[in-house]
Amino acid sequence: MSAGSDSEQSRDNEKTTSFTVRREDKVIFPALSSTLKKVLDGCTSKMYILIDEWSSLPLDVQPYLAEFVKRAFLPLPEVVVKIASLEYRSTFRLDLGEGILIGLEVGADMSAAIDIDDYYVYDRNPARITEAFADMLYKHVHTELPADYLANNFQVSDGYTFARKLFSDPSVLQELVRSSEGVARDLINIFNHAYFSAHRRGKEKVDKSAVTEAARLWYVQDKLRNLDETLLGLLRRIIEEVIGEKKARSFLLPRELGNHPLIQKLFDFRVLHVVQRGYADKDKPGVRYDIYTLDYGTYVDLMNTSKKPELGFTELPADSPEEFVVPFDDKRRIRRIILDPKILQF
Predict the structure, then answer these.
(1) What is the pLDDT of residues 207-243, one digit of tens each?
(2) Residue 278 three-state SS
(3) For residue 238, is it within any domain?
């Protein structure tokens, strides 16, 4: 009797177990979107979603988050989504096979509004970029101080007056902006090093030597330390060919080579910078190049030597020789240096 009861109890447990349903959390996107729309309509407002450091997410997670953004927010005209990411560390779409795609299609679902690396290229418009970065520095310092502190104590109310009070000469600010290569993070950090360097030497204003030393220090401490032996070897090859042999700092690279993982990593680590994308060389129709420049830190130690590279894009004379290319509308030129693909072979 007892054994029979135990057996029956066991069978009951098996039946219960066999019918146990595994619960999974699900997001009902239509319900989420409709609820959000009612809230926004009720308060007659728009919603702005700003996602920074997208590329810090694991690559395998990014397409799934992109799919969530697409389904939950993009159907609503009241919602504006902005995503800031690094080009070569971002995966917005994933092909799961059998025609199943998840994530965002850049250009269709969302458009790439602005490429900061391209927008703040110093050589494209030195005066304009210097002015913009002076305002950026002023706002960065202004937000860290009490309200009206700069205006009341130093009569500083904008980037122009800030630069006049802080730098020994306008050319020093220009050198600081050049050393940052259009990267705001580098601008602020080089400025911090330069300011305290000048302060330690008893200088009332930041001078050029403080900027060049700060740029060298930032390059060594922040950039070189991130490169492995392979990347260091490739960077050394490029420096030897472009700066060492050609005494230049910019070079052309066929667009297909720009997708090489090593080039992408040097770009991500900010030791290579894009000057212009998709340059069409008139002497080679159909071939497109990206124009890169080496980071300021790679040649800062050569600035006062005979090995100093050509820094700027120079005026183009009427009888310009064929060894030059013209990437900008204002007809300035650079040396025609096309990087040999063999340089990428290890």
Answers:
(1) 999 999 999 999 999 999 999 999 999 999 999 999 9
(2) strand
(3) yes
Q: Categorize the per-residue pLDDT at 58 as very low, low, confident or very high, splitting at 50, 70 and 90.
A: very high
Q: Is residue 6 part of a domain?
A: no
Mark out the alpha helices in the chain (DSSP H runs): 2-18, 29-42, 62-72, 116-119, 126-142, 149-154, 159-166, 170-180, 184-200, 208-218, 229-239, 261-268
Residue 200 in tokens: 């330690």
Q: Write the CB contacts of 332 (distance below 8 Å, at least 6 apart in sequence).
A: 123, 312, 313, 314, 315, 316, 326
How far apart CA 209 and CA 198 sit, in angstroms, is: 9
Looking at the domain assignment, is residue 5 inside a domain? no
**148 found inside a domain:** yes
Q: Check: CB of residue 138 under 8 Å from CB of residue 162.
A: yes
By residue range, what is the domain housing residue 169?
117-223
For residue 274, the surrounding DSSP H or E stretch is strand 272-280
Q: Summarize pLDDT for 135-186 with one digit per residue, the tens.
A: 999 999 999 999 889 999 999 999 999 999 999 999 999 999 999 998 888 9
Q: Which CATH number is 167's domain given?
A: 1.10.8.60
Same domain, 124 and 181: yes
State whether 78 and 173 are in the same domain: no
Give, rounded to a whole angstrom, the gap between the first and last alpha carbons of the chain: 80
| Averaged pLDDT for residues 80-89 | 87
Tokens 């926004």, residue located: 40
Pairing of strands 272-280, 324-325: unpaired
Q: The pTM is what?
A: 0.77
